[in-house]
Amino acid sequence: MTRQIILDTETTGLNAAGGDRIIEVAAVELLKRRPSGRHFQRYVNPLRSSHPDALRVHGLTDEFLAGMPLFEHIVDELLEFVRDAEVIIHNAAFDVAFLDAELERLGRPPFESHCALITDSLTIAREQFPGKFNSLDALCKRFGVDNTRRTLHGALLDAELLAEVYVWLTRGQDSLAMELDEASHEGGEPVQDLSGLRLRVQRASEQELREHEAILQALDKGGNAVWKPVGASAS
């Protein structure tokens, strides 16, 4: 799929079914696995306070969020941004539960119906690194992605970091070959044609050949050597 959206949310707490709400949603666009430069980010007034533990994570105060639009005022922009794309989310069940709860309040269909596919990058990470920590911070460290700006969780920054991590998670020989082929046909760096390359052959000297023959003869004393000295008959 050529168009992918990396999405993240921040919320007032952990329980969408219990009334916790989205306070920030952000997404970045990848085209053919490369950042396009387009992104979506909105803060949302949740009409309720964040749980103290959640506040310590995201740092978005009631006073700050009070001046932000309601989810119903940003939902059309969000759904248009993700429309017909593969949406990639780390621990997708969490974010999708909150998005579905917000959409249900507005009488809208579930989030999945607005995009082509939802992919959980946490599931991919657990398959590749079973039994290891697979949080976004852990994956950034594992792949060498700079997350030093992540002193607090923010949806846009987390989406940008996840975009880098996701490319590393899914980078294989097939995808690399695909990217090189695309670059050669779409104005990127041309693939170097090595079909006419002739490698220089460095032949062994007479002294090296004699030493090699002596080694083979020593190995063949029992008559069982796979490589036979010159002139020896194969058994």
Q: In a nutshell, what does this entry contain?
A:
Helices cover 41% and strands 16% of the residues. The protein has 235 residues and is an alpha/beta fold.
Please, could you describe this protein's structure?
This protein is an alpha/beta fold. The protein has a single domain, classed as Nucleotidyltransferase, domain 5, CATH 3.30.420.10. The chain is 41% helix and 16% strand. The protein contains 9 helices and 5 strands. The protein has helices at 52-58, 62-66, 71-82, 92-105, 121-128, 136-143, 155-169, 173-185, 206-219, and strands at residues 3-11, 22-31, 34-43, 86-89, 117-120. A 5-stranded mixed β-sheet has the order 3-2-1-4-5, with helices on both faces. Strand 2 (22-31) and strand 3 (34-43) form a beta hairpin. The longest helix has 15 residues, at 155-169. It is elongated and about 90 Å long. The N and C termini lie far apart (59 Å). The model is unreliable at 173-186 (pLDDT under 50).
Q: Give the overall shape.
A: elongated
- Terminal CA distance reads 59 Å
CATH fold field value: Nucleotidyltransferase, domain 5
Give, in order, the helices and strands. EEEHHHEHEHHHHH
Content-based structural category: alpha/beta
User: Percent of residues in beta strands?
Assistant: 15-25%
Poorly predicted tracts of residues? 173-186
**Major β-sheet annotation:** 5 strands, mixed
Helix content: 40-55%
User: So, the CATH homologous superfamily?
Assistant: Ribonuclease H-like superfamily/Ribonuclease H
What's the CATH class, please?
Alpha Beta
| DSSP summary: helix tally | 9
Q: List the domain count as a whole number.
A: 1
The CATH architecture term is: 2-Layer Sandwich
Q: Record the strand order, biggest sheet.
A: 3-2-1-4-5
Average pLDDT figure: 86
Computed CA radius of gyration, to the nearest angstrom: 28 Å
What is the strand tally?
Answer: 5
